[in-house]
Amino acid sequence: MLLRTRKRQSGKKQQKRRLLLTSDFPHDNTQQFIDRAKKTYRQTGFSAGATMKYYLLALSWIIYCVLHSWLISTSVTDFLQQRLGGAYRFYRLFYNIFSIITLLPVIIYSQSIKQEPFFIWPEYLLPLKYALLLTGIFLFVAGARHYSLSQFSGWAQIKEKTSSKLINETGVLSSTGILGVVRHPFYAGIFPLIWANDLDITTLITNVILSIYVLVGTLLEERKLVAEFGDAYLEYSKTVSMLFPLQWIKKKLGFIPA
After folding, report:
1. Distance CA 195, CA 91 (A)
2. Phi and psi at residue 147, in whole multiples of 5°?
3. What's the whole-model pTM score?
4. Pick the residue with more confidence: 102 or 15?
5. Other Cβ atoms within 10 Å of 182 Cβ, number
């Protein structure tokens, strides 16, 4: 009789432990994440057809990114500037229009194969999500104050009949404002904006490829800026970080003399 009573008490304790575990808040979110991942797996099935559409999506983004980078590369722009002469001032506008037109099919296809997200930002992480979104928006707004949008669009080149490749307001190297925090605020702003979204397989593939593309594009842009500004840009790059404001944080914390 005593043995049975102990077994019952032990069983009740184990049941309480299971209830505590299953009612734990982080555990609930982990289980929800697993359930959504399983549901996504069942929806896609990762059959040959399902896998092929993701390969096609990845290939579409890669082709777009490579073509986009190639058309703005120094070798192409220098060649076209020599061949087109004064007509080269139309190239920036043509490039932007072409980029938008070729981007639309990729976005439309991406949206057509979206599945239910396997990761949805939980309520307790929403402050982080909104912080990322605000950071991305801030970087774009702060960066826009130092760059000429008319130069970026190509309209200024046509209006002023120039073929400048620079998109900043003054045409000289600047390290004020946000450019004293990161060297490429526009590129830096892309990361928090794209990764602050809920994730399904389509979004994950897109985000990974775009992240790699932005990193490669930033490095290519660095080479252009070194060629344009020489030693002045090299010195600037020693004191201001490329994308993540590590140098700025160190200065604020006192690790680097201001």
Report:
1. 32
2. -120, 150
3. 0.75
4. 102
5. 23
Cα dihedral: 152, 157, 160, 162 (round 10): 130
Mean pLDDT for the chain? 81
pLDDT tens-digit readout, 198-220 = 999 999 999 999 999 999 989 98
**Alpha helices per DSSP H over 113-200:** 126-144, 149-153, 155-160, 185-195
Domain 46-253: CATH class, spelled out: mainly alpha
Spans of all domains in the chain: 46-253
Angle at 186 between CA 89 and CA 233, to 5 degrees: 75
Please give the Cα distance from 243 to 240 (Å, whole number).
9
| Contacts with 157 (C-beta within 8 Å, 6 or more apart), sequence order | 89, 90, 92, 93, 151, 163, 164
Distance, in Å, from the CA atom of 61 to the CA atom of 133, rounded to the nearest integer, reads 23
**Cα distance between residue 100 and residue 114, in whole Å:** 21
User: In residues, how long is the chain?
Assistant: 258
**Contact present, 193 and 132 (Cβ < 8 Å):** yes
